[in-house]
């Protein structure tokens, strides 16, 4: 599981480079996120633009990342494809996370 990270101002942007977050890579995703976000800024923006499939294990891995950051830090999601967005809506996880249509929208909101 490959993730790329950059820090700007008071946020860290983590971009998932794989097209799937599923049972086969959920553990690797959690480990990559934990290693990448340890000791980082207050807000982590998870860029999911390249992800076109997520299953319950993937959702669980994203929730685990949110719990790892809590209570002092927050996780924001950006760039969900229609398929991934549908999974978040069906599971009502869109009520748990702040979800933005694009990375630019998320960055603008976090900066404000």
TrEMBL record:
Give this protein's Gene Ontology molecular function annotations: anti-sigma factor antagonist activity
Task: Spell out the InterPro entries in the cross-references.
Answer: Anti-sigma_ant, STAS_dom, STAS_dom_sf
Q: List, for all copies, the residue spans of the domain called STAS.
A: 18-110
The record, for Gene3D superfamilies, names:
STAS domain
| Superkingdom per UniProt | Bacteria
Q: Which Pfam families does the record associate with it?
A: STAS
Q: Which residues form a coiled coil?
A: none
Q: Which family does it belong to?
A: Belongs to the anti-sigma-factor antagonist family.
Please report the name of this protein according to its UniProt entry: Anti-sigma factor antagonist
Which species is this UniProt entry from?
Answer: Sulfitobacter aestuariivivens
